[in-house]
């Protein structure tokens, strides 16, 4: 497994630490000195521990509470359940009702997930800022490593702020000059949206300038990791030429490539493969209490049945299933008519979701509708792409039922599709077609899910590349966006894509119009344009600001 893993075993309590709520109800709380005296804080070993603590926040957790799954790094509730890709699932609408409220767009700033995600990300910001301060003050830290570690910290801070920006939009920005609790009590409207993007870009540019081409430890960002994240920031702003240039630099570095087999991307033994540009590092059986360093934020996705706990959340929507239908030429069919057994299917479908009658991973059994918790409410489908086989040593089949599979923040297919998107917007439609076909070729040439006897494909799979030249920009744009959905489904990206494309209200309300006839739990769902594209800033944040006046 990975050399460099997230770990709280080396966590320290640092001087002048300012946190946005941990065990208390306040978002701003001053923490007293802990295990290490202030005079020792800038020792090289303690600085390294502070840097590791900054990495530890990547998994979305900052405590061992039962609410740890309410701030998942994978954004399955923030990116999938609130899109057209997935339902909440679980034991009905009352089970984790806070996520159900998000699913029907009845969001309010007191929902625990909305509060906790904010807290978790600002915990990452706080730890990163403090590690920067300590590193800059350290006199005995290895000079040859100091700039590299600063690059890593700039990268981490850029990531935490990117996540905050895409989820909440208007956010307070605090850098390493913050030294007291009051320094963190700033307005979320202090900067314009453009100014916030500039600051996020500045973090990644600073990281790019300081990071090496290669790192000894997997899990630490390198120069191309920072450039790839810059491409992502440009994509989210519609800065197409800048995005294209950044993506090309990463591609031309030859550091990354698509794995030949689609399913292999999601095997824990490959989770730092050539396809992974940056990932949250997970581990199990590493001595952490309750395997805390595993994918605890995704624990509720366990599909049930004879091999897994029946949490049954993060359930694929019928709309997503239907999106994988193809025609006789292997091209997408976007009619949203329920997929039938005889229909041609994109082979990525049965690597992505569990469907009745199709083998589930390498368990030697067919997935059955009876595995699904609350079948009548959420239907028969289950997540599969990011579920680790119960036969794998990287899957824990006892409490807390988690795996060591990393969460991929950026993978190479993602970057390729950003490039295709930029090419479409810049008018190079044929260039975009070539890039999209790279992704489709991998899907076509991958090993398909086979029947239990391993004698034939498990379903009627058919996928081909786009052979006809692209001459219409609108059609090319739709093709790229469709490919992103098919390739990246249930990886936490869909809702944020819809928002940045400016089609969230149109797409989701069209989805709901039909899906309400299939799933009654969505009866009261209503997406309001201009309101539901971003989550509300938590009420506790305002309460604390008011109390400090």
From TrEMBL:
InterPro entries found in the cross-reference section: SusD-like_N (IPR033985), SusD_RagB_dom (IPR012944), TPR-like_helical_dom_sf (IPR011990)
Main location: membrane
Entry keyword annotation includes Membrane: yes
Subcellular location: Cell outer membrane
Domain SusD-like N-terminal, first and last residues per copy: 111-234
Pfam families to which the protein is assigned, alphabetical: SusD-like_3 (PF14322), SusD_RagB (PF07980)
All residue ranges annotated as the RagB/SusD domain in the record: 275-544
PROSITE patterns according to UniProt: PROKAR_LIPOPROTEIN (PS51257)
Keyword Membrane: yes
Keywords: Cell outer membrane, Membrane, Signal
Family as reported in the entry's similarity comment: Belongs to the SusD family.
The name this protein goes by in its record: RagB/SusD family nutrient uptake outer membrane protein
The species this protein was found in: Pontibacter silvestris
């Amino acid at each position: 497994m990975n050399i460099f893993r997230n770990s709280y075993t080396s966590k320290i309590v640092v001087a002048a630490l300012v946190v946005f709520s941990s065990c208390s109800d306040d978002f701003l709380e001053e923490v007293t000195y802990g295990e290490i005296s202030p005079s020792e804080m800038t020792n090289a070993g303690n600085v390294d521990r502070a840097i590791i603590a900054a990495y530890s926040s990547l998994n979305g957790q900052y405590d061992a509470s039962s609410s740890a799954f309410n701030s998942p790094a994978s954004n399955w509730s923030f990116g999938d359940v609130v899109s057209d890709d997935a339902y909440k699932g679980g034991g009905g609408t009352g089970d984790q009702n806070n996520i159900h409220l998000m699913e029907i767009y009845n969001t309010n700033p007191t929902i625990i997930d909305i509060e906790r995600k904010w807290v978790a990300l600002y915990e990452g910001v706080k730890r990163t800022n403090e590690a920067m301060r300590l590193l800059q003050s350290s006199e005995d830290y290895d000079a040859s490593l100091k700039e590299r570690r600063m690059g890593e910290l700039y990268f981490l801070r850029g990531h935490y702020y990117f996540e905050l920006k895409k989820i909440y939009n208007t956010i307070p920005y605090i850098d390493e000059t913050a030294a007291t609790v009051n320094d963190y009590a700033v307005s979320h409207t202090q900067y314009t949206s453009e100014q916030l993007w500039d600051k996020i870009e500045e973090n990644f540019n600073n990281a790019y300038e300081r990071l090496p081409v290669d790192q000894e430890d997997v899990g630490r960002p390198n120069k191309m990791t920072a450039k790839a994240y810059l491409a992502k920031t440009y994509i989210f702003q519609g800065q197409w030429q800048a995005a294209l240039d950044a993506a090309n630099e990463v591609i031309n570095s030859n550091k990354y490539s698509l794995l030949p087999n689609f399913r292999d991307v999601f095997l824990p033994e490959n989770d730092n493969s050539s396809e992974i540009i940056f990932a949250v590092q997970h581990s199990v059986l590493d001595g952490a209490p309750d395997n805390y360093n595993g994918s605890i934020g995704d624990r509720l996705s366990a599909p049930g049945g004879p091999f897994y706990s029946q949490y049954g959340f993060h359930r694929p929507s019928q709309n997503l299933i239907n999106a994988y239908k193809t025609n006789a030429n292997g091209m997408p069919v976007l009619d949203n008519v329920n997929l039938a057994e005889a229909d041609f299917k994109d082979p990525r479908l049965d690597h992505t979701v569990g469907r009745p009658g199709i083998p589930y991973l390498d368990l030697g059994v067919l997935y059955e509708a009876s595995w699904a918790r609350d079948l009548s409410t959420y239907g028969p489908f289950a997540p599969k792409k990011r579920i680790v086989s119960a036969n794998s040593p990287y899957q824990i089949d006892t409490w807390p039922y988690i795996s060591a599979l990393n969460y991929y923040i950026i993978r190479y297919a993602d970057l390729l599709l950003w490039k295709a998107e930029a090419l479409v917007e810049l008018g190079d439609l044929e260039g975009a077609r070539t890039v999209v076909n790279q992704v489709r070729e991998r899907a076509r040439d991958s090993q398909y899910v086979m029947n239990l006897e391993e004698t034939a494909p498990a379903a009627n799979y058919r996928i081909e590349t786009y052979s006809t030249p692209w001459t219409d920009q609108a059609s090319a744009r739709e093709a790229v966006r469709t490919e992103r959905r098919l390739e990246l489904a249930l990886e936490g990206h869909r809702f944020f894509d819809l928002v940045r494309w400016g089609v969230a209200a149109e797409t989701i309300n069209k989805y709901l119009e039909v899906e309400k006839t299939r799933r009654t739990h969505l009866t009261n769902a209503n997406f309001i344009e201009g309101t539901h594209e971003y989550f509300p800033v938590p009420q506790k944040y305002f309460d604390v600001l008011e109390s400090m006046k």
